[in-house]
Design goal:
There is one protein chain. The protein has 13 helices and 12 strands. By secondary structure, it is α/β, with parallel strands linked by helices. The protein has 3 domains: about 1-75, 434 Repressor (Amino-terminal Domain), CATH 1.10.260; about 80-175 and about 310-340, Rossmann fold, CATH 3.40.50.2300; about 180-310, Response regulator (Rossmann fold). A 6-stranded parallel sheet has the order 2-1-3-4-5-11, covered by helices on one side. A 6-stranded mixed sheet has the order 7-6-8-9-10-12, with helices on both faces. Helix 2 (about 20-30) crosses helix 4 and helix 3 crosses helix 4. The longest helix is centred in the C-terminal third of the chain and has 16 residues, at about 310-325. The protein is elongated and about 75 Å long. About 40% of the residues are buried.
Length: about 350
């Protein structure tokens, strides 16, 4: 097929088609780079119609297969698997995807997203992926794998990289916000303002995953311990799968005495709770100082004090690590743990009645 494609091509010396790449062919057909690759190297994995379209486009563009022969014959899929524990359209996931894709797409790689939100999809992925070995690298975003699952991925012989993973054990590289230390910074801010009755509000996940955000609770408690102050702390746990905002409000308004400061594990819960509190006559920061975590969409618009992290940058760093590992390079800093940055806005202030213990 390669000889036939070459013999039929009659490129013009001045034609831009002489510089056609595998990406050009993929764009012309409207398929992924990995599909173009498989059309030449593993045609049994591509439909007959798609392969014919790919070969026709390669002929028309005068795509020189020999220029990509080494990559094609290596068995590379030109595909990177991105594992997510929640839908891609969530704020953090979208931003990670953008940063990751920006880096790896320039090197000819596609991103294949796998949403693994329950035991069934988890079992299916970790059964099929290692057998098919149809990815050149695997990225774990925001959740951990069990030892047996990680062993299956490692058995594929491809790099396994983490982004905001609960643990880095067994990974080739990772870039993960230091959630515990970042949460200490947020908590110390509230304590420094004079708050002595704090509530930490977090979501409880029904899935079999441990998220890196779970470490923020540990940082909250550690900051209180290190302060040496007599601080009353309340923990408000909200089920993520059933109206966490209502659960947070119900538990918060029942506390006696009321906390003067609220630290939310994520902005996603902080923002709607703030709006709902107004219906109960509560004002921010008069009645509660509020701090979130993520600096997600709308946080700046509503003036939410929060801990800023940049998932787009996390995706870019992970992408750079992937390409380096695929090129056989040794990473100077395989594991990075940047801190989130405290962004002061309008929702935190000194308590109005520092010594008050009145209830609602």
């Amino acid at each position: 097929m390669e000889q036939n494609a070459k013999s039929q091509s009659e490129p013009s010396p001045a034609s831009p088609a002489q510089h056609a790449t595998i990406q050009d062919v993929a764009r012309r057909v409207g398929v992924s780079v990995s599909t173009v690759s498989r059309s030449f190297t593993r045609p049994n994995l591509v439909s007959k119609r798609t392969r014919q379209r790919v070969l026709a486009a390669a002929h028309k563009l005068d795509f020189s297969i020999s220029r990509s022969a080494m990559a094609l014959k290596s068995g590379h899929s030109f595909r990177i698997a991105l594992l997510l524990p929640s839908p891609l359209d969530e704020w953090f996931n979208v931003k990670v995807y953008e940063g990751l894709a920006e880096v790896v797409s320039h090197a000819g790689y596609d991103l294949s997203v796998f949403t693994i939100s329950n035991n069934d999809t988890r079992r299916e992925f970790f059964t099929d992926m290692p057998v098919r070995r149809n990815a050149d690298a695997v990225v774990l975003c925001s959740f951990n794998t069990r030892r047996d699952e990680l062993g299956l991925l490692r058995g594929m012989g491809v790099p396994v990289i983490g982004i905001n993973t609960y643990s880095t054990i067994g990974l080739d590289a990772s870039v993960s916000i230091n959630d515990a230390v970042s949460a200490q910074i947020a908590t110390r801010h509230l304590i420094g303002l004079g708050h002595r009755r704090l509530a930490y509000i977090y979501t409880r996940h029904p899935t079999p995953f441990h998220f890196s955000a779970d470490n923020r609770h540990r940082g909250f408690q550690e900051a209180i311990r290190q302060s040496g102050k007599d601080i009353q702390q309340n923990l408000i746990s909200c089920p993520l799968d059933y109206d966490p905002v209502n659960a947070a409000l119900t538990q918060l308004l029942e506390l006696d005495p009321q906390p003067t400061a609220l630290f939310f594990q994520t902005d996603d819960v902080a923002i709607p709770v703030m709006y709902r509190l107004r219906r109960y006559g509560k004002e921010i920061p008069r009645d509660y100082s509020v701090i979130g975590f993520d600096d997600s969409t709308y946080a700046a618009q509503i003036g939410l004090t929060t801990m800023h992290q940049d998932p787009t940058e996390l995706g870019k760093i992970a992408g750079q690590k992937i390409l380096a590992l695929l090129n056989g390079q040794k990473l100077e800093h395989p594991f990075e743990h940047p801190l989130a940055t405290l962004v002061l806005r309008n929702t935190t202030a000194q308590p109005l009645y520092p010594s008050s213990s009145s209830s609602i």
